[in-house]
Amino acid sequence: MADEDFRTEGGVLVDERVEEQTEAGDHERFAHYVRKDKIVESAVLGAPVVALCGKVWVPSRDPGKFPVCPECKEIFEGMPSGGDGGDHKE
């Protein structure tokens, strides 16, 4: 494992690896809600994103062409409304 896979924070070693847990074609069937800052990071670095429902993938398709994930939608609608605009469909 490369040194860049780990970083230290306050004397604690933090493992930031992301394990993809996708089911065959599942992330391609729905548009999911993802934190806006993670969408930008993914677009720039090609990093995977984690949807509200827990799906992990690297976005590559237009989310407007797919129905919203029912689980993401339920979680999003149950969240308190805030002014930061943190979660968006991807």
Please tell me about this protein's structure.
With 90 residues, the chain is α+β, with helices and mostly antiparallel strands. The protein has one domain. It is built from 3 helices and 6 strands, in the order E-E-H-E-H-E-E-H-E. The strands form 3 sheets. A two-stranded antiparallel sheet has the order 1-2. It is globular and about 30 Å long. The relative contact order is 0.22.
Mean pLDDT: 75
What structural category arises from helix and sheet content? alpha+beta
What share of residues is helical?
A: 25-40%
Strand content: 15-25%
User: What is the chain-wise order of helices and strands?
Assistant: EEHEHEEHE
> Largest beta sheet, briefly?
2 strands, antiparallel
Strand order, sheet with most strands = 1-2
Q: What count of helical segments does DSSP give? A: 3
Detail the poorly predicted runs.
none
Which labels suit this protein?
about 90 residues, alpha+beta, about 25% helix
Short description:
The protein is α+β, with helices and mostly antiparallel strands and 90 residues long. It is built from three helices and six strands; from the N terminus they run ββαβαββαβ. β4 (49-50) and β5 (56-57) form a beta hairpin.
